[in-house]
Amino acid sequence: MKYKHIVLARHGGSEVLQFVEDELPEPESGEVRVKILATSVAYTDVLVREGLYPGIPKPPFSPGYELVGVVDKLGTGITDLHAGQRVAALTVVGSYSEYLCLPATELVPVPETVDPQEAVCLILQYVTAYQLLHRLAQVKSGDRLLVHGATGGVGTALLQLGKLAALEMYGTAPTTQQSLVAQLGAVPIDYQREDFVTRIQALTQNGMDVVLDAIGGLHLIRSYKILCNGGRLINYGFRSAMNSKQGRLLKLGFNFVVLTLLQWLRSDRHVRFYSITQLKQQHPDWFREDLITLFDLLHTGKIKPIICDRLPLAEAAKAHRLLETSTVGGQYVLICNE
Predict the structure, then answer these.
(1) What are the two backbone dihedrals, phi and then psi, of residue 188, each rounded to the nearest 5 degrees?
(2) What is the DSSP secondary structure assignment for residue 126, as one 8-state letter?
(3) pLDDT recorded at residue 227
(4) Is residue 295 pLDDT above 60, yes or no?
(5) Which residue, among 85, 151, 76, 143, has the nearest Cα to 116 in the 3D structure?
(6) Is the dihedral of CA 312, 161, 148, 261 positive or negative?
């Protein structure tokens, strides 16, 4: 039996993503073959595609950071899952595919009551947002929060979850997306027309309790300046390295230099870096607990991912191009099987 998947033939632009057909793999002992319903396209996938993400295999391989699917076939020794059961997984690579074999221990049950295309948005983006707020920043009601890139996948998740936590929220976004930030309950700051440091200083007396920065680089220094006493700055991305195709690897290294210098400063302001995969390795129970919590919030309608487009798996390269040039907020979803 054949199946189709996207293969990253070599590192580079979106043109390196090829839609190919291969023999369907069989699950080994302790594995489950998942028929994938949906995966998503995130900036992390762009880093993987360009060879800038640590720990990925050498090409050729299939990218894809997360999936929602149904159990298609069980390997030997599996007793707590059954065929047809809906499941989710954080894969890092491999989910741009119609099928994928995974260790059963990596699978998290998904409620049958939720839309799989919405559910897949929670695994990377919303778990990231939830853990930034509640595991690292440990926010409490009334805290002042600034979200950079507030209309991206993680940004919109942060604003939805921040509203549930009764935070006072501010979000930077381009001119065309100011209304979305306001709709999600935050004060919009137009980084294209105003300096966010000056604006925050004008809007607040003491600065921010929490700043979540996915931009990185020298941007971290400006984010650090607006922290109040006891404030927390958490860097979770490298968007500044994506602004130019030249020198991205050098810029990623520079990001960690800036981050390290800020961490060395002797003050009551706290600086940390977040990686979903590192935290999952350190606390695998946290990932499972947090994702189950988010599935419940989705089921009860307390959160709703903003999906800007849903495309077939064969159009993964197009989804990457759209993501890199998008002027709308939300997430892109690839439909792998109906």
Answers:
(1) -75, 140
(2) I
(3) 96
(4) yes
(5) 85
(6) negative
